[in-house]
């Protein structure tokens, strides 16, 4: 009995001791300008590796994650080793702590121990020609602000387009805005850029690629020298080194640069005083002006709408429309303002309008005087005025405006009735409710609330039994979890379409978790022969199986080889298509 207990103890101890998950750093003390290498190693394959939040720990990731896997057989015993490697750059000085990483190995969560690193002042770095990039980002990255016009008139539109130029030898991996441009004394409108697209262009007499990062339309609201504050970016990029890989291709290394478009001065000219009308309200552009009544012949108690509109291109949102002057017999209400304006890169264009509701008080003919609208025409650099036609309103009936109020009692009564029709739309009847209400105690609602907990007891019992059955279904829960993780990592791969290594890591996890959900196997059992055999037994087509295995092999190779954005997009679409086909074929 003692031997059996000792044997069980030794077997249990060996099972607990066989799984190791550790974190190691290249150095425990470094300067703030030095880089730190951290490696997370394990001796058993796992899933759902979660690194610590390096930014919260005071570091920025400048390289990785890269992954290495090794497996060997010695004297009939196998050994396995897997590593995730990151290159970090400290962002602050002091005693920093890298928190725990975690991974799921055979259903058990393992975590590394926190690592303490001391970051000091900057140190002088040795210059190793084999480690230095052959091309520097400093000489190959430029942020430019293209301005359509630097001496516009007041309220004349100008455009600012921010372009990032970079040479053909480097690749942009990430960028972050540090300082957004400020447009003091300008009315501004940003234009959405749906997709960042690299294009070919010339810069400093040489061919470059460039990406348009931001487009903005500006209208200066005051004259004189106005400053556009700069846009600043932190750029992460990959540059080639002097080293070559097995196939003779240049190896890439991570580099970064902070770029700024610089501040720009705009000299805004005031509008000329010569020929400026007294009723000029600040409209600049090219417009058409219209005044249109809904009708000109009314009966007593009716109303009309007077629509005043301006159509064209210019600073439509930055001026006011003229207000009509009416005879006292016409009562006018405050206008309803409406705007249908779009802002492309050339400036605002569309229509604005004010709609006035007018109600006549007496019968007769009344004239609305012509309205004048003045704007500054940029094509001719002169003021132009548009006048509307006079409008005559004919009120057919109602009280007369001439003289005093009628003295005949019948006329007085008739006038009162006619005046009342003006407000005939007011509600004449009311629905009153008693202020006293029935007591809540003893009401139907009271007894319903009392009985509700007793009625809920059977539902709670049924729900508890279903939860217990679900918790006891270990295999089913594993399948659900793997299926959910497959969808999660496939979605994460889609978010990293522009970033090679995170994309292929997430895509590989999605493929593995999909197999775990569909084939009921663990990651350690996933060999090509095993996967192919099980998929064929489940009636999967040979072409789909071959495509699945080939894609899983490509995921490991692609993380270390150069891959274009087109190839990454194609691999993602291929993964979605293969998983969709296997969903239909597996029974």
How would you describe what is shown here?
It is a single chain. Helix content is 25%, strand content 38%. The protein has helices at residues 2-17, 409-421, 444-472, 474-495, 500-519, 528-537, 542-558, 565-585; strands spanning 21-25, 29-31, 36-42, 47-50, 59-74, 77-90, 94-98, 102-105, 108-111, 115-120, 141-147, 158-166, 171-179, 186-191, 198-203, 206-220, 224-228, 232-244, 250-260, 264-268, 284-293, 297-298, 304-314, 330-332, 336-342, 349-360, 364-368, 372-377, 382-387, 391-395. The chain is of the alpha+beta class. Helix 4 packs antiparallel against helix 5 (500-519). The protein contains eight helices and 30 strands. Strands 21, 23, 24, 25, 26, 28 and 29 form a seven-stranded mixed sheet that branches. Strands 11, 12, 14, 15 and 16 form a five-stranded antiparallel sheet that branches. The protein has a four-stranded antiparallel sheet with strand order 1-3-6-5, with no helix packed on it.
Give keywords:
seven-stranded mixed β-sheet; 8 helices; 25% helix; extended; alpha+beta; 38% strand; five-stranded antiparallel β-sheet; 587 residues
């Amino acid at each position: 009995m003692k031997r059996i207990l000792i044997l069980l103890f030794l077997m249990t101890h060996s099972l607990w001791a066989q799984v190791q998950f550790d974190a190691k750093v290249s150095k425990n003390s470094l300067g703030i300008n030095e880089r730190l290498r951290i490696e997370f190693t394990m001796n058993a394959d796992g899933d759902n590796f979660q690194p610590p939040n390096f930014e919260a720990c005071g570091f920025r990731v400048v390289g990785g994650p890269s992954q290495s896997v090794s497996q060997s057989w010695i004297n009939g015993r196998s050994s396995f080793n897997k590593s995730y490697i990151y290159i970090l750059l400290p962002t602050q000085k002091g005693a920093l702590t890298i928190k725990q990483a975690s991974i799921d190995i055979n259903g058990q969560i393992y975590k590394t121990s926190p690592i303490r690193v001391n970051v000091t002042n900057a140190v002088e770095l040795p210059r190793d020609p084999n480690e230095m990039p052959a091309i520097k980002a400093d000489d190959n990255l430029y942020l430019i602000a293209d301005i359509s016009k630097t001496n516009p008139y007041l309220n004349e539109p100008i455009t600012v387009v921010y372009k990032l130029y970079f040479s053909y030898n480097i690749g942009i991996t990430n960028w972050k805005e540090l300082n957004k441009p400020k447009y003091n004394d300008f009315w501004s409108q940003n234009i959405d850029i749906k997709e960042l697209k690299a294009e070919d262009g010339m810069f400093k007499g040489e061919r470059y690629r460039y990406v348009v990062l931001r487009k903005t339309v500006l209208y200066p609201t005051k004259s004189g020298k106005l400053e556009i504050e700069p846009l600043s970016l932190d750029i992460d990029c990959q540059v080639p080194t002097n080293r070559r890989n097995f196939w003779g291709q240049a190896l890439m290394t991570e580099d970064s640069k902070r770029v700024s478009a610089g501040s720009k001065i705009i000299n805004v000219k005031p509008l000329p005083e010569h020929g400026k009308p007294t009723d000029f309200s600040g409209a600049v552009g090219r417009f058409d002006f219209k005044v249109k009544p809904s009708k000109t012949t009314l009966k007593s108690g009716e109303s009309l709408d007077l629509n005043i509109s301006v159509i064209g291109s210019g600073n439509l949102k930055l001026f006011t429309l003229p207000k009509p002057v009416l005879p006292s017999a016409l009562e006018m209400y405050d206008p309803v303002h409406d705007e249908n304006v779009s802002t492309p890169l050339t400036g605002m264009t569309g229509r604005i309008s004010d709609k006035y509701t007018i109600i006549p008080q007496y019968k007769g003919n009344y004239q609305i005087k012509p309205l004048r609208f003045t704007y500054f025409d940029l094509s001719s650099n002169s003021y132009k005025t548009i006048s509307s036609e006079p409008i005559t309103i004919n009120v057919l009936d109602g009280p007369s405006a001439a003289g005093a109020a009628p003295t005949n009692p019948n006329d007085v009564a008739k006038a009162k009735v006619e005046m009342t029709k003006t407000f005939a739309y007011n509600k004449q009847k009311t629905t009153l409710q008693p202020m006293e209400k029935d007591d809540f105690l003893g009401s139907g609602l009271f007894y319903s609330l009392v009985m509700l907990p007793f009625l809920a007891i059977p539902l709670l019992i049924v729900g508890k039994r279903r939860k217990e059955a679900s918790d006891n279904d270990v295999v089913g829960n594993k399948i659900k979890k793997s299926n959910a993780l497959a969808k999660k990592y496939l979605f994460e791969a889609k978010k990293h379409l522009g970033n090679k290594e995170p994309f292929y890591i997430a895509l590989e996890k999605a493929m593995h978790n999909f197999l775990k959900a569909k084939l009921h196997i663990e990651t350690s059992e996933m060999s090509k022969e095993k996967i192919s055999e099980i998929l064929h037994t489940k009636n999967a087509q040979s072409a789909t199986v071959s495509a699945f295995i080939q894609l899983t092999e490509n995921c490991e190779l692609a993380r270390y080889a150069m891959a274009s954005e087109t190839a990454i997009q194609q691999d993602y679409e291929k993964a979605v298509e293969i998983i969709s086909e296997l969903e239909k074929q597996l029974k």
